[in-house]
Design brief:
Number of helices: 9
Shape: globular
Strand content: 35-45%
Distance between the termini: 54 Å
Oligomer: single chain
Largest sheet: 6 strands, antiparallel
Length: 446
């Protein structure tokens, strides 16, 4: 796939955005912003060697937000015709007329808008014919099934190829946009023996197909993770150290991001309320936001409001240095936008230097969590309780798999009880972190 597959050129999307802003001005809007976008892709899923689904997606849209002073209205359409664009602007203004005034509503501050847009190499088309995608999925699944004869069934393997582009513009004169891509390969299988059945999976995702793990390695990883869960036991209730495997550790960092994001803060619904400048992690811990990583999955030169992103230290020596704020939430808090409308950009949590094996040795005896089940976080209090599957560890070695247990604690205490962060950094999302060892949690079982 290549840029010729886009139905609209970047120039046309910019012209479209300009037309919408002109329509909004002519209709009486005091300010307006618009995003025009399109995307397309294909997904192929194979199960037990047979094609289950082949899906093609292609979509487009224009969203316009119109302001009448401090009143705000939003409308969107997938029709790019002149009549549809005018109707959409009229609907946005009609909504604004019936909306209560909000002194925090409005466009981003002009001095915060991006002036330069660095090239971050985010768009990598993948010319992958359907037949080739099917063979990749089959290869991946076959590698998983070949791991062990106890792998008796499959939930399938899939290949996804996606591209998109957008242009954002507002009546302050800002206009910017770029294309992007995201491709992935995944596999999930089921193993069975006298003890019962177990399931696990693995996946790889990247901007560029050449950066994906091989289908064979993804399949093998899925198969190995599944087989090792057979003969799982329950545990008696206890308190012990817990090691969160890297993909789960990224979830802990996601909970931290939510707790220090504007929406929770101005609603006073966060357990980290008023924590700016406070110690929230051990002094060895750093969290860095790096929006300009080339080919980064969450790289962006500006946020969804046109505010320039920037490199910054969110946590330095365990102390919280900054929140994650959009224009609206920043105004509610009497602060400035941090360029995080739409979320965080490539959070980096440096390792404390231990490999995964060394983390197991450091823990000595405790629980390795490899899968979390259910949703058990109270964002107001920080109370945390999740179902867990994983492994009991003795003398730094995996002793046996465990299931049907729960880990519980309070995130505020858990963050301060972090002992180490591994070198096994998971780079498949917007938060890059290795496995996290927490000194002590309650493990509830029999």
């Amino acid at each position: 796939m290549s840029e010729k597959h886009f139905s609209y050129s970047d120039t046309l999307l910019r012209d479209l955005a300009d037309r919408v802003l002109d329509l909004a001005r002519s209709a009486g809007a005091t300010a307006a912003e618009v995003e025009a976008s399109e995307g397309f892709g294909q997904s192929v899923n194979v199960r037990k060697g047979e094609v289950e689904t082949i899906e093609f997606n292609k979509d487009k849209g224009v969203g316009v937000t119109a302001y009448l002073g401090q009143r705000r209205g939003h409308a969107s359409t997938s029709d790019f015709s002149a009549d549809a664009l005018k109707r959409t602007v009229d609907k946005a203004l009609a909504i604004a007329r019936f909306t209560a005034e909000d002194d925090c509503a409005g466009l981003a501050d002009a001095d915060l808008l991006a002036q330069k847009v660095p090239q971050l190499d985010l768009h990598h088309p993948w010319d992958l014919p359907v037949d080739a995608a099917i063979e990749l999925a089959r290869t991946c699944e076959a590698a998983a099934l070949a791991v062990d004869s106890r792998i008796t069934n499959s939930e399938g393997a899939g290949v996804s190829v996606q591209e998109s582009q957008f242009v954002y513009a507002n009546s302050l004169g800002f206009m910017g946009g770029y294309p992007g891509s995201r491709h992935s390969l995944s596999c999930a299988v089921i193993a069975e023996d006298a003890s019962g059945m177990q399931r696990d999976y693995w996946y790889t995702t990247a901007r560029e197909a050449g950066d994906l793990d091989s289908p064979e390695s993804v399949g093998r990883r899925a198969g190995q993770r599944t087989v090792r869960r057979l003969n799982a036991r329950k545990l008696a209730t206890r308190q012990c150290p817990v090691l969160f495997e890297a993909p789960l550790a990224a979830g802990l960092i996601a909970s931290f991001v939510s707790a220090v994001s504007g929406g929770h803060l101005y609603r006073k619904s966060s357990f980290l309320l008023d924590s700016l400048g406070q110690q929230v992690f051990p002094s060895f811990m750093q969290i860095e936001e790096r929006p300009f990583i080339v080919k980064g999955l969450s790289s962006a030169p500006f946020d969804s409001e046109g505010v320039a992103t920037r490199d910054r230290d969110v946590v330095k020596d365990g102390v919280l240095q900054g929140y994650f704020l959009s224009t609206y939430s920043a105004r509610k808090l009497g602060m400035k936008s941090t360029g995080n409308a739409g979320g965080n950009h490539n959070l980096i949590v440096p390792s404390t230097g231990e490999s995964f094996a060394e983390l197991l040795q450091k823990m000595s005896t405790g629980l390795l969590a490899t899968e979390l089940l259910g949703h058990g976080l109270n964002m107001v209090t920080g109370d945390y309780s999740r179902g867990v599957a994983g492994f009991w560890v003795e003398n730094g070695v995996l002793a046996y798999p465990v299931e049907e247990i729960t880990v519980a604690g309070n995130l505020k205490d858990m963050f301060m009880a972090i002992q180490a962060i591994g070198t096994d950094i998971d780079v498949r999302g917007s938060r890059r972190v290795g496995s996290i060892l927490i000194e002590r949690m309650t493990v509830a079982g029999n």
